[in-house]
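> example.struct
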């Protein structure tokens, strides 16, 4: 039984990673999870300079999920290089760094700083608001997607994964733009924009008014988008969005994802990632599946 998968020439022992922003860089989870059991750890977003994030309150529970408006708070790329990479390199897992920015220049600055670092892939978070374009996310305009992909690809030493926003009319248009720009892979979906109102205070529950909806409520949408993208481009896909169990993960794999990322589930079950890894292995044993590739995109 072989759970190995390959993306852009990088080999992973299994198809399970973490979703950016839900696992830090693994430090706080390492007492619950053997990080060496994971195919990869995908880090929290890393920016060129420290970001303070949005004002509080910035997290709210919803039916079947949660809203967050954290605002990609992080200490910046210098602290990440000095502190997080050495920590993660103690484990037998791959490192995927999530890169964020508010301008194309900011993305490129992070990618350049990471060029000679011991990390395996870069995940470019194009759901960030493009301040030069009036705040619309980079990932909501196909021309911007292709431009940022090609610019980042030109300077990156590591393979790049473009993380697609679901807040668009046609996700396949954005995926094709990323492919045209030279991406090595895509990941999807990021959070859906949502809102919650406190009827007792007659006010928005989040200080930011809107936030990103994640968790089981978005899984059917995420699964549909992964399937659509898998049938419109030739790039490998990391699928995510509401995965709680191995059964959820297997749905994404069968829809066309080469890997899956576990996000919101980590907040309610710190061992969710390991349970998904073990559940996939159990399924393969039970159904006498020799290699995980037999399951990838098996549903047409």
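> example.seq
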């Amino acid at each position: 039984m072989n759970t190995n998968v390959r993306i852009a020439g990088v080999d992973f022992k299994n198809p399970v990673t973490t979703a950016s922003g839900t696992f830090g860089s693994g430090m706080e989870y390492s007492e619950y999870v053997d990080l060496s059991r994971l195919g990869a750890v995908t880090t929290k977003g890393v920016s060129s300079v420290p970001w303070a994030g949005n004002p509080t309150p910035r997290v709210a529970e919803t039916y079947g999920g949660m809203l967050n408006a954290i605002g990609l708070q992080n200490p910046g790329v210098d602290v990440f290089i000095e502190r997080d990479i050495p920590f993660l390199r103690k484990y037998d897992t791959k490192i995927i760094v999530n890169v964020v920015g508010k301008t194309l220049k900011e993305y490129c600055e992070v990618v350049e700083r990471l060029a000679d670092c011991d990390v395996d892939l870069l995940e470019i978070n194009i759901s960030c608001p493009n301040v030069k374009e009036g705040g619309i996310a980079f990932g909501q305009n196909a021309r911007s997607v292709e431009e940022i992909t090609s610019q980042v690809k030109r300077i990156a030493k590591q393979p790049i994964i473009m993380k697609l926003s679901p807040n668009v009319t046609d996700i396949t248009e954005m995926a094709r733009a990323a492919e045209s720009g030279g991406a090595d892979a895509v990941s999807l979906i990021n959070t859906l924009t949502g809102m919650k109102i406190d009827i007792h205070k007659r006010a928005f529950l989040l200080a930011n008014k809107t936030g990103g909806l994640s968790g089981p409520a978005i899984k059917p949408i995420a699964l549909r988008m992964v399937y659509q993208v898998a049938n419109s481009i030739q790039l490998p896909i990391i699928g995510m969005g509401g995965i709680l169990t191995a059964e959820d993960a297997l749905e994404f794999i069968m829809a066309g994802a080469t890997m899956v990322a576990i996000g919101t589930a980590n907040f309610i079950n710190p061992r969710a990632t390991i349970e998904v890894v073990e559940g996939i292995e159990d399924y393969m044993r039970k159904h006498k599946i020799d290699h995980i590739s037999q399951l990838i995109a098996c549903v047409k």
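> remarks
Residues 5-54+71-192+215-294 form a domain with the TIM Barrel fold (CATH 3.20.20.70).
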